[in-house]
């Protein structure tokens, strides 16, 4: 990787890490406060609605946005054309959801379902604007704008949600948090970035992006659809707030794994795309990413699973304790997420959305089969969750097969890249478990468990001179040293014109 791209990539990772870390910390605090103020029933209804909205949102923007980032020659006509298409699709889906809301409310038996869904569905329009703005920012690796917008959005929407929950608005506090967050992000990004949509539309450009994006869209629908089906079945089949507990467990596990992994992938996907003609270089970049993300995510998932009970009890109170087994299962599932997600991004960077679609079809056929067995044979929410874990393991295996075929990324290399963090995390788990046996109050014991886990893991990484740890440490030191000498060189140009591809190649 040349020095300019390397510096911009490292700078992007740092800003993205600040955004993701700061945002997730704020979100965690907000979610804890809201969970204490509200009843799990409020979350059950919201979770069902958000599953539906996420599916519609996937159709609106998935595929097109990735195409904008992937294409080197995209200009303002591309961005504006894609935006108008997404707004048209959003209008169609909003109309559909508006009229089917009464029928859906009968399934979940909540009179507030209809007005709440109609309000939250407005986020489809805001999401279209946010996704195009985000694609432009991602192309120029200017992630400081994401950092600013995300933190402000989370603080504004969270503060309003907490105030409404405290005033007794119940589920409406959660609805307001969602819609205000989506809307305020549009406004903030428009204030921070100078791009605005133009009244132009090119059918040729639209067809070009659709030719790449439709396979990715279908792939995403399969993925979202499968992930959503589990929640929808739990919400419709079980009336004991199992959906709230399932969603909360998935949220906290995903809050760490998905967001930390996105720090790397959102920055590295454009970097992969820059070298899409050099398979060997992309393979080595993927290997470094796999080692680095596994180094961070695997111990966090293992650690969170180990302290799940005191974590939930202290932060959310007794009423949320049924969340614990769901949280632990999701932690197991997300251990396998970093490698699969990174490998899939490499496929997309090469423009192989056809292979991406093929892998999704294979994985989801297996996943639906496992889900059917859990629903009709075991008939418990826990069993449905276990089917998700099993599918995650299978999904990683399928992705590994295609990485071997397309990148000559051998099985043993893929397993070896992930194995050191797994082994170190196993030792760390032993230390965390030992600390849990101490006869001291719950909160100090939880803090001690976390400190012991971090100390053991980092200590072993340094002692064993783990390659991925040394790579991350060296890269960070090199970036800091260079930035002290020439601060402006690390971030690249502050201004970006979508019509000028020189800024992004």
Word description of this protein:
There is one protein chain. The protein is mainly α and 505 residues long. It has helices at 3-37, 40-61, 64-70, 76-108, 113-120, 123-139, 143-166, 171-192, 203-237, 242-274, 279-306, 308-316, 323-335, 337-349, 353-378, 381-407, 411-436, 442-463, 467-485. It has one domain (3-497). The chain contains 19 helices and no strands. The chain starts with a helix and ends in a 20-residue tail after the last helix.
Structure in a nutshell:
By secondary structure, this protein is an all-alpha fold.
Extended strand count: 0
Helix fraction bin: over 70%
Number of helices: 19
Overall mean pLDDT stands at 78
Shape: globular
Please state the structural category.
mainly alpha
The helix/strand order is HHHHHHHHHHHHHHHHHHH
Radius of gyration over alpha carbons?
22 Å
Domains (count): 1
Biggest sheet features: none
Uncertain residue segments:
486-505
User: What is the terminal separation in angstroms?
Assistant: 13 Å
Which range does the strand content fall in? under 5%
Task: Draw up the topology in text.
Layout: H1 3-37, H2 40-61, H3 64-70, H4 76-108, H5 113-120, H6 123-139, H7 143-166, H8 171-192, H9 203-237, H10 242-274, H11 279-306, H12 308-316, H13 323-335, H14 337-349, H15 353-378, H16 381-407, H17 411-436, H18 442-463, H19 467-485
């Amino acid at each position: 990787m040349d020095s300019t791209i390397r510096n911009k990539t490292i700078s992007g990772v740092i800003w993205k890490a600040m955004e993701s870390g700061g945002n997730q910390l704020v979100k965690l605090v907000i979610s804890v406060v809201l969970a204490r103020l509200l009843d799990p029933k409020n979350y059950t209804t919201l979770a069902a609605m958000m599953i539906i909205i996420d599916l519609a949102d996937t159709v609106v923007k998935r595929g097109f946005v990735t195409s904008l980032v992937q294409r080197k020659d995209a200009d303002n006509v591309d961005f504006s054309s894609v935006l108008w298409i997404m707004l048209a699709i959003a209008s169609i889906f909003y109309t559909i959801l508006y009229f089917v809301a009464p029928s859906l409310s009968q399934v979940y038996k909540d009179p507030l379902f209809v007005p709440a869904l109609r309000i939250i569905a407005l986020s489809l329009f805001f999401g279209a604007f946010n996704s195009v703005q985000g694609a432009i920012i991602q192309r120029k690796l200017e992630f400081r704008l994401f950092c600013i917008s995300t933190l402000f959005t989370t603080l504004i929407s969270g503060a309003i949600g907490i105030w409404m929950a405290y005033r007794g608005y119940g589920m409406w506090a959660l609805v307001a948090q969602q819609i205000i967050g989506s809307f305020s992000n549009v406004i903030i990004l428009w204030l921070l970035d100078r791009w605005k949509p133009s009244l132009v539309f090119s059918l040729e450009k639209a067809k070009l992006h659709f030719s790449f994006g439709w396979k990715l869209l279908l792939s995403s629908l399969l993925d979202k659809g499968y992930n959503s089906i589990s929640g929808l079945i739990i919400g419709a089949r079980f009336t004991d707030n199992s959906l709230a507990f399932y969603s909360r467990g998935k949220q906290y596990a995903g809050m760490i794994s998905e967001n930390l992994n996105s720090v790397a992938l959102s920055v590295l996907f454009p970097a992969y795309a820059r070298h899409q003609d050099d398979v060997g270089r992309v393979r080595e970049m993927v290997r470094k990413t796999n080692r680095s993300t596994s180094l961070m995510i695997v111990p966090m998932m293992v650690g969170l699973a180990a302290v799940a009970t005191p974590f939930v009890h202290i932060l959310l109170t007794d009423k949320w304790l049924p969340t614990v087994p769901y949280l632990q299962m999701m932690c197991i599932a997300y251990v396998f997420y970093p490698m699969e997600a990174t490998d899939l991004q490499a496929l997309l960077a090469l423009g192989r959305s056809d292979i991406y679609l093929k892998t999704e079809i294979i994985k989801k056929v297996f996943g639906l089969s496992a889900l059917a067995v859990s629903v009709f044979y075991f008939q418990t929410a826990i069993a449905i969750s276990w089917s998700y874990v099993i599918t995650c393991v299978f999904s990683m295996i399928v992705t590994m097969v295609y990485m071997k075929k397309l990148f000559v990324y051998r099985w043993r290399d893929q397993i070896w890249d992930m194995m050191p963090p797994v082994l170190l995390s196993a030792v760390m788990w032993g230390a965390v478990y030992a600390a849990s046996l101490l006869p001291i109050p719950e909160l100090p014991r939880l803090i001690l468990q976390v400190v012991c886990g971090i100390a053991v893991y980092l200590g072993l990484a340094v002692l064993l001179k783990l390659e991925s740890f040394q790579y991350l440490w060296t890269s960070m030191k090199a970036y800091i040293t260079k930035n002290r000498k020439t601060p402006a060189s690390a971030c690249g140009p502050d201004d970006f014109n979508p019509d000028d591809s020189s800024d992004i190649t």
